[in-house]
Amino acid sequence: MIGTRDGTVNPGKLATDVKLAGILFFFGGMEIILLLTVAESLYQGYSVHTNTISDLAAIGRSTSLFFDPALFLWGLSWLLGAYFLFRDGGKKGMMLLNILPGIGVMMAALSPENVNIAIHSVGAIIAFIPGAITLLVSYRLIGSQLRFFALFLGLLSLASVAIYSGRTTHL
Asked: Cα torsion at 125, 130, 131, 132 (round to 10°)?
């Protein structure tokens, strides 16, 4: 049984579901951070100032051999983590909002930018915008001081999307 923000117990939520969701989110986050760093270091001439993350997964680049699957695995971990976190909680809207970023990441991974920019861009938008909104909405659900960190990251993410979308044609 899992406690809620107001200290009451939600008897419908199994602790194993929350633990499994946490493991999936942690694994996906660590996996993408590590492999993103490796891909950036192996990509000849890559610059975080001029290149996009999508460039690392473009077909024909040596980094696409491991970075495309890494992106897909991250999206899948996110999707499954959201499912286990909300499947018995009665918050279907929150489940959908938390599943969307995982779907978007998987779409972007399955359609690299140099294969189909339209599908890739839609996937990126589905990943970035609902991902940031999820953090903002989570502010109300998190019972600890970490809620302020979620609020900060959500605002930072939305600001980054706004700034970045103004300087390029694709995410």
From this structure: 100
DSSP string for 97-113: HHHHHHHHHHHHHHS-T
pLDDT tens digits for 85-129? 888 877 788 889 999 999 999 999 999 999 999 999 999 999 999
Average pLDDT, the chain: 87
**Whole-model pTM over 0.85:** no
Give residue 6's pLDDT band: very low, low, confident or very high (50, 70, 90). very low
**CA 75, CA 95: separation in Å to the nearest integer?**
15
Whole-number Å distance between alpha carbons of 50 and 97: 31
Question: Which tokens is 4 given?
Answer: 């809620």
Element containing residue 149 per DSSP (H, E): helix 146-165
Alpha-carbon distance values, 4 to 7, 16, 99, 150, 159 (Å): 5, 16, 21, 17, 30
